[in-house]
Design a protein that fits this description.
By secondary structure, the chain is an alpha/beta fold. It contains 25 helices and 30 strands. The strands form 5 sheets. Strands 1-2-3-4-5-6-7-9 form an 8-stranded parallel β-barrel, surrounded by 6 helices. Strands 15-16-17-18-19-20-21-27 form an 8-stranded parallel barrel.
């Protein structure tokens, strides 16, 4: 095989980064202690970054930095500071989720290569084109895709000058990444902020099927599928594990490196994956990749399966033999751990010492001879030294002007000024220029990039806004609400559109004031059906939670609104959508608090939306969530499951939190919080901010009870928007119980 595929490894801390490099990774992804989606990892400090880059590059390994969380407005200054430093490093790419960060990188930091994070849930060709327009250079495809879907999206990516990477080993999420809010709702620890507490892995009250961990999937391993991934044109194989320790990283990367080498040299694959079983695993599955989503993907134990696997393959004849075998495994792992640790401790990332000798006399240029352990060079000032001036040069002044070199992966070990004449003068700007020249040589002949300051965002022209009410429905029988011209009625389209498209097109032709609401997940033929729907659509606007549909709406000149599951959290994300895709308005994320919302500045001629009442969607899954709960007469999913299955059930964790599992016809499996969100305060808290307040009246049965019919509820919410003093109390009486914890606490 001629084409080489990148092996991309996790680096949750310094030892793991070193382990990945030692084991033969082509690239490693790691995060700083801010702005990355694995805040539970130790991560690395900025002070270590230069040394890591030098070590990696000396070993033909690239380094990608994870900046893959949603950014809130108050963090923009700190983010800007990080970016101003990053542009003067040799970082090989940054991994991004937030549209505002895409905007800043594309506009102000073009030298940094952008990789689209898995948190963007990329699963259809429109999303690939959307990310290309945001100047992404590569995209991490959703973990739930099968090989045919990966093949197709990789072709689309290559046509649009993007690379693709695919997760091939490590933890599966039960939810589509990026559209899971379970941890956020339960504990305020948002997965979109790198703080996921993994409540899906928790123990639950035993289900009717007899399972204690009903949401717990086996780990992903595509070790035996390398040929198919290569044939699909995938550019990078990504290993998950930034909260795993260094011996895990070394072992898994080493196993995959051997597999790749076998494939390259002999066009054959290794069958032995025993090393992968010796480190943390929950057993392995490649069922998503194979397109065989089945009951066997679950495991009713979130702990490591290493010792259980050992028992299974050895079939011990007695408990004593089993205990002996287990102890031998532990002993072997300890020896291996120590061997790896000894190797990585020998890898040095310390800053490199500089010896700088300054010389010059009146009428000559100022000269700096610079020595590092492996090279030496000379730089000179442009101006000549004089014997008159404002402040004469001294060792202290020169060191002060050059000490910025200490932040570049080097440090001034010795500054010698013995050969500099006495009482000499030179403009201090010449010392700054001298420092830049030294840095240019040390930085592989790359000019230093001056820090940028963002121009102040224009405050929108103050306008007295009389907000409208918008209502989401999912049943044709509720279309009668459209007769009220003072409200906007959104109709939720299903995830699976391909078999319902004709009926839905007719529905919207008959009710042109009805506004389609596109879901987050639109895969393969259903995405194609959604695009065809747009071709026939003649209404005034759409709402979409899927960026692929956003891209198509933009290309077709259809007015579009960004839905709440696009996770908009800052002013620059709104600018990105407006300037790049002619977006007319956006929902603000319901994960934000009052304080986080109030600082957001919207562009001119742009509408803001906010949901004040809705069932709280916690996750959407491609897997069947009933396998482990109530059971199912099928042990694997097929097309009929999505189209025809309609079930509900509940699960309850040991803290007595209850969740609703809901499967509607034409939709994927979803989990809802037991209690709905209701926020009556925001209307008074943030006047003249939102063009529309939204209520979700879809037929999701939770523990929240509504004691009025839908028309009456709409009327009550309209009264509330109009400032009726009794409406708040009335709403809380007829909709109960409810919560709005996220509005109070934020992310």
């Amino acid at each position: 095989m001629n084409r080489k595929i990148e092996l991309l490894a996790p680096g949750g801390d310094l030892d793991s980064v070193k382990a990945a490099i030692l084991a033969g990774a082509d690239a490693v992804y790691c995060g700083l202690d801010k702005f990355n989606a694995r805040n539970r990892a130790a991560n690395i400090s900025f002070e270590n970054l230069s040394g890591i880059l030098r070590l990696a590059h000396d070993n033909n390994c690239e380094v990608f930095l994870t900046l893959n969380i949603l950014i809130v407005e108050s963090e923009i200054p700190l983010l800007l500071s990080v970016l101003n430093k990053l542009v003067n490093t040799g970082i090989d790419g940054v991994i991004v989720q937030d549209f505002g960060l895409f905007y800043l990188l594309s506009k102000y930091f073009k030298v940094l290569k952008i990789h689209a994070s898995t948190q963007l849930t990329t699963h259809n060709e429109g999303q690939v084109k959307f990310l290309s327009r945001l100047n992404a250079g590569r995209v991490n495809l959703s973990r739930e895709l099968n090989i045919d879907e990966i093949n197709h999206l990789t072709s689309v990516a290559h046509e649009n000058e993007l690379l693709t990477e695919v997760f091939v080993h490590g933890s599966y999420c039960i939810s589509f990444s990026g559209v899971c809010y379970m941890s956020s709702v339960l504990s305020g620890k948002s997965g979109n902020r790198g703080r996921c507490s993994q409540p899906c892995r928790d123990r639950y009250l035993t289900t009717p099927k007899g399972k204690d961990y009903p949401l717990n999937l086996k780990d992903n391993s595509a070790y035996s599928d390398l040929r198919e991934l290569s044939d699909a044109g995938v550019d990078s194989l990504k290993i998950e594990g930034r909260i795993k320790e260094f011996e895990y990283v070394y072992t898994v990367v080493n196993a995959w490196r051997q597999q790749l080498q076998r494939f390259y040299k002999h066009d054959m694959l290794l069958d032995d994956n025993s090393d992968l079983h010796k480190v943390f695993n929950r057993k392995f599955s490649n069922s998503f990749l194979k397109g065989d989503i089945n009951e066997e993907m679950f495991i009713d134990n979130p702990m490591s399966n290493s010792t259980l696997h050992l028992s299974e393959i050895n079939q011990y004849s007695s408990d004593d033999k089993r205990e002996q075998g287990t102890q031998e495994l532990y002993d072997e792992k300890e020896v291996t751990r120590n061997q790896i640790k000894n190797k990585i401790d020998q890898l040095n990332i310390d800053d490199i010492p500089l010896v700088i000798e300054i010389s010059g006399a009146s009428g000559t240029v100022l000269e700096a001879k610079v020595k590092t352990p492996d090279k030496s060079f000379v730089v000179e000032s442009k101006s000549t030294l004089a014997d008159k001036g404002i402040e004469c040069l001294s060792h202290a002044i020169i060191f002060k002007k050059l000490r910025g070199l200490n932040d570049t992966g080097y440090y001034i070990n010795d500054l010698n000024t013995d050969r500099l004449g006495a009482r000499l003068y030179i403009p201090f700007r010449e010392l700054a220029a001298l420092k830049r020249k030294i840095f240019f040589v040390l930085n592989d002949s790359r000019e230093a990039v001056s820090p940028i300051a963002l121009p102040a965002l224009k405050k929108p022209t103050p306008v007295k806004i009389k907000p409208r009410l918008s209502v989401l429905i999912t049943s044709p029988k509720d279309v009668l609400l459209c007769e009220d011209s003072s409200i906007d009625v959104f109709f939720q389209l299903p995830n699976s559109l391909k078999n319902e498209a004709a009926e839905l097109i007719d529905l919207f032709k008959s009710n042109q004031q009805l506004i389609p609401w596109f879901p987050s997940i639109l895969l393969d033929e259903d995405y194609s059906a959604a695009v065809d729907f747009l071709h026939h659509f003649r209404g005034k606007t759409i709402v979409t939670n899927n960026t692929g549909i956003a891209y198509e709406a933009f290309k077709r000149g259809i007015n579009w609104i960004a839905g709440p599951y696009l996770n908009l959290t800052n002013s620059y994300s709104l600018l990105a959508l407006k300037e790049s895709f002619n977006c007319s308005g956006s929902f603000i994320s319901n994960e934000l608090s009052y304080t986080q919302i109030k600082n957001i500045k919207k562009p001119d001629d742009f509408d803001l939306y906010y949901s004040i009442y809705h069932p709280i969607l916690m996750m959407t899954s491609r897997q069947c969530l009933f396998h482990q709960v109530t059971g199912c007469n099928k042990n694997r999913l097929d097309d009929r499951c999505i189209q025809e299955c309609a079930k509900t059930s509940t699960i309850t964790n040991l803290k007595k939190d209850t969740f609703i599992i809901e499967k509607a016809k034409g939709n994927y499996h979803r989990i809802y919080n037991a209690i709905n969100f209701l926020n009556t305060k925001v209307i008074k808290d943030l006047p003249d901010r939102f063009s529309s307040f939204f209520i979700d009246l879809t037929d999701i049965e939770t523990e929240t009870k509504i004691e009025l019919d839908k028309a009456s509820i709409v009327k009550l919410f309209k009264n509330h928007l109009q400032g009726n003093p009794d409406s708040t109390e009335q709403l809380e009486k007829v909709i109960h119980p409810s919560i709005n914890k996220q509005y109070q606490e934020g992310i």
